[in-house]
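Q: My labmate handed me this sequence with no annotations at all. I'd like to see what the chain might look like in three dimensions before we decide whether it's worth expressing. Could you predict it?
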Amino acid sequence: MKKTLAIIALAAPALAGTKPTVAPAPAPAPAPAPVVSPWAVELGVGCNRAARNVFKDADDQKRVHTWNWDVTGVYNLDDNNALTLRLGYAYGNRQQDEAARIITNTWSLMPGYRYTYALNDKWSVFAGANVGIANSAWRLKEDGSTCHKSGWGWAYSAEVGVRYAICPNWDAFVAYSFNGHTANPTRREDDAWETIRSKNQNFHGVRLGVGYTF
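A: Here is what I predict for the chain of 214 residues:
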């Protein structure tokens, strides 16, 4: 017992100068990267200048330009490539002379592809193309009577534009568009066997709007 107390007494000064060992705190786990949704939607409006007359055999006819509205769904495959689906509507109305007026209506549904290249954190440029179906109708009002016909065909569009990021979820865009359709409904007048034939239409236009990323 005396020996044990002596050993403790001799070791006490050495133990008194020993600093306690402190284990380092574990490094905090890195924060997970924010999840970026691949889905986006766009609302667009535009104006289109017609490149052709509405009807055949009417060289003196005024071309009917249109206004258009569209909703486009976007699925981003990566930072550059995306798939799109666009539902669009275009309306045209033009007085031809004192007696005649032509009105046009066109609905279209077009899947497509888009490539985007970022210039910096805010600005990017893009190019895309869409091909789908269209239902187009024309109405000819003349001398108090109305002649009307509609039909189906292919729809297409190609565009190049620039986009500006307003905030992480919202952006604004403007683009040049070349678009058209192959629907050319034709009406035959029963009384005189007179045929009114319409042409395939194509347009040069400007499209602008906003986009939202979910």
